[in-house]
Design a protein that fits this description.
122 residues; alpha+beta; 2 domains; two-stranded antiparallel ribbon; 20% strand; elongated; RNA binding; RRM_1 domain-containing protein; Nucleotide-bd_a/b_plait_sf
Length: 122
Amino acid sequence: GKKLKEQHDANQAAVALNSAYAGAYDAPPVSVHCGGAKSMIPEVPAPPNNILFVQNLPHETTPMMLQMLFQFPGFKEVRMVEAKPGIAFVEYGDELQSTVAMQGLQGFKIVQNQMLITYAKK
């Protein structure tokens, strides 16, 4: 009956491993985001990009307003989408410059709306 004993040990090890795994998964995820806008950040953010995607803009927002707002180093242009009010793309020279602008303006309120800024999908 030696074979059975080994099988039993292997099962015990597997059970121990599984409960260790479950413990690791039950642990609350450690959040690395700084700032209070956590709940608004989409599940899978796009990788850093020199173009920012801005959402939740009030209807009265004009490209001129955004140009003044996003006047960070490396700013190139603002593109608003006629068909979809409330969103805009803001282009910078590179990813570092867009990231600085994003961090500076994340959650900024124009009127009542809190802006949500993510990287545009490449």
